[in-house]
Amino acid sequence: MTDDSTPEDAERLIVESDALHARVRAFATGSSGETFEALALRIARFQRRYAPGFARLVAVHRSALGSADDIPAVPAEVFRIARVAVHPAELDVASFETSGTTAVRAGVHAFRTLETYRALALALAEKALFGSVRGPCTVVALAPPPGALPRSSLGFMLRLFMDHFDARPPVFERGFDGPERFLCGPSGIDVARLFDVARLARERGEPLCVLATSFALVALLDALGGAPVPAPPATLVMQTGGFKGRAREVDAAELRAAVARTFGIGPESVVGEYGMTELTSQLYEDTGATRPTRAERFRFGVYCAPPWLRVVPVNPATLEPCRDGEVGIAKFIDLGNVDSAVAVITQDLVVRRGDGIELLGRRSGAPPRGCSLAVEGLLAGHA
Amino acid sequence: MPEPLSNKLARLGALLEGARRIANRTTRFGAVARARLVASTRLSAEGVELALDAHLETDPGIEELELLCASVKDAPRAHVLLSANVFTGAHRALALALASSERVCVRPSRRDPEFVALLAEQCPGLFSIVARVEPEAGESVWAYGTDATLAELHASLPASVALHAYGGGLGLAVVDRSAAASDAELARAAERLAYDVVVFDQRGCLSPRAVLWVGDAGGARELAAALAEALESKQAEVPLGRLDDDELADVAVYRDAAAYAGELLVAGRGFVGVGVEPDRLVVPPIGRNLHVVPVRSLSETLDSVRDLVTALGVEVSPSLRAEFVALVPRARVTHLGAMQKPPFDGPVDRRARRY
User: pTM of this prediction?
Assistant: First the structure.
């Protein structure tokens, strides 16, 4: 929308946007006859019409928006320096923020509706994360409580999973006094409460699902000092996020093994999740949930996109798709991003592995050759 | 007892003589030097020529040399650790070390060792090229590199070694309506600024990367258009050198981010972006790229980069100039077109971190 848009324009935008959201949700449930390609192009053309920034990007790339591959991707950095939305700010129902620093301001992903976010996140988690869970499940998070109006997409998603997959108010014994299941506070991980929740799940005879960031898991391991958590047999751990800016980094395989040991579960029950504020959709490690023998089929470190998300490794300089086996940066075409940017490009390095991708860390930007300042951070716009 | 100034000036004289021989395009050695520098610096042949012709200090005045000598302390031995710097930077780094000691050891950049090698060939015995910097107590080190490299170096040095550390820096240009009242003035300011961009392909800490425009939004767009035109024309005179894949990737990100967030103009082989939101400083990657930032509040725009600004090229009213200078007091301030020619009076970067 532009400053000179009329109320009729705004009304038309909402009608078109609502229709696209409905199409995306129908696509996710498999009840739509539409192809990914056709829907991606519809959304891209909608964004070209209502987001002047995207229209300029399309012009710069001289794209006719003739195929999904032709959709130019908005760099994730743009979320820090400009509003990436087709609608005006007064229609926002949520604004999720990326992590910022004192020097570089946080990025913001604005949402006009969270209905599609909810539908897509739950549809995927049901298969890729909770696919092996039969019956009820006790869900907790090793993360601080997100508050009534979450500013982080992760906080929102964790709350969503708790409400959906374990809607019961927890029945705590031994001094539990509230419904809160976010087991991380100002003084760190609440290990005592985690133990109580683990025992509660055992008593209930159901699996425990622990949703956690990688650094929260490291903090837990540090706090436990090798002691096991008395978790029920089918416990599941969802691990998300890296270690950027954190004091201690742990090798992914080591962390997985240590977490599995601590909860008394197999390494295939520690499932990686990849999400970013700039996207609506997530990816999960290939758990082989739909296959008969999960443990044998688990592909550690390989993340699979749901049907409504496409990940294309592209050459960082030319932005052309990479050949199979070639490392590139991740270009996401996310049908969930109806009102922001259907195609987003990050500096995360990925390589295609069959029908999934492997994450290889972050492209650091050109090392300075000369005394001019390296571009990383600065391009992102200063606070 | 302090070393006599005449001794220091003699060493500097020998170094300057070597630099003059490298810069002399009429000799066979001058031609060989150019070929070697094109291969190692990634600048175009015209870029190397421009640097040697106009930006290698070969004939500084005696006042400048005395100031340079006065800017350093005597040391029993001086060490120089060079990064892949703007290649002529090695000349000044050596001059500072030679002004402080008659014994100078240099560890050139592994990626760009050629200019130091050329100077060594022309100035036999003046300094030694070494594989490692290994200072002893009481000696001095002049080090150039990333903040991480410098911190690592600092941690490895004996306590009594004087470390003069130079990290990455940033040049900014500032233009206001008073300097661009007419189309002709605007074009002249753009032409001068484009020159500052072209020299060393923005690889230097004095190179302008963003232009702060103090004025109306329409003026920012006019300035951007003039800059794009000037850069396009400079590309024909002094082509952009080689950018590696990582640098090209950074340019792709900037191009697309600037197009989405504001406006983007093609400027030869680079881009000029125009910000829409005032005071939002965006720093584009090296090459031939400039971002025009509309400024409403000077302090807000400069707030988070104040310590990074090495050079300020100004084309503004005197009162505004004073305001800017007060905000970045350690930056070298010049008019546009002269950002890359600081006097040979001491370190280029006045923000040296001394340990």
Answer: 0.91
User: Best residue in A331, A372, A379 to probe B by mutation, most B CBs within 10 Å?
Assistant: A372
CB contact under 8 A, A77 and B253: yes
pLDDT, tens digit, 9 for 90 and up, residues A308-349: 999 999 999 999 999 989 999 999 999 999 999 999 999 999
Give the separation between CA B20 and CA B58, rounded to whole angstroms.
5
- 3-class secondary structure for B310-338? EEEEEECCHHHHHHHHHHCCCCEEEECCC
Residue B266, number of CB atoms within 10 A of its CB: 13
Contact at CB, B277 and A374, closer than 8 angstroms: no
Contact call for residues A292 and A131 (beta carbons, < 8 A) = no
ipTM of the complex: 0.89
- B259 CB near a chain A CB, below 8 Å? yes
Radius of gyration from C-alpha coordinates of chain A: 21
Q: List, in order, residues 6 or more apart from B126 with CB less than 8 Å away.
A: B11, B14, B15, B18, B98, B104, B120
- As a whole number of angstroms, the distance between CA B185 and CA B318 comes to 17
Q: Which one, of B185, B203, B209, lies nearest residue B240 by Cα?
A: B203
Task: Flag if B170 and A75 touch (Cβ within 8 Å).
Answer: no
CA A183 to chain centre: 20
B221-272 pLDDT, tens digit per residue, is 999 999 999 999 999 999 999 999 999 999 999 999 999 999 999 999 999 9
Q: Which of B261, B168, B252, B185 is nearest to B219 (CA)?
A: B185
pLDDT of residue A184: 84
Expressed in percent and rounded to 5, the helix, strand and coil fractions of chain B are 45, 20, 35
Alpha carbons within 13 A on the beta-carbon side of B327: 22
Record: contact A373-B244, CB cut-off 8 A: no
Average pLDDT of span B1-7: 91
Residue A247: its pLDDT value, please? 46
* Among A81, A102, A367, beta carbon nearest to B261: A81
CB contact under 8 A, B280 and A382: yes
**Of chain B residues 103-162, which have a CB less than 8 A from chain A?**
111-112, 144, 146
Q: What is the pLDDT of residues B283-325, one digit of tens each?
A: 999 999 999 999 999 888 888 788 889 999 999 999 999 998 9
Q: Which residues of B touch A59 (CB under 8 A)?
A: 259
Of the candidate ranges A287-301, A316-330, B274-288, the one whose mean pLDDT is the lowest: A287-301
CB contact under 8 A, B253 and A372: no
Do B260 and A75 make contact, defined as CB atoms within 8 angstroms?
yes
Kindly list the residues from chain A whose CB atom is less than 8 angstroms away from the CB atom of residue B284: 375, 379
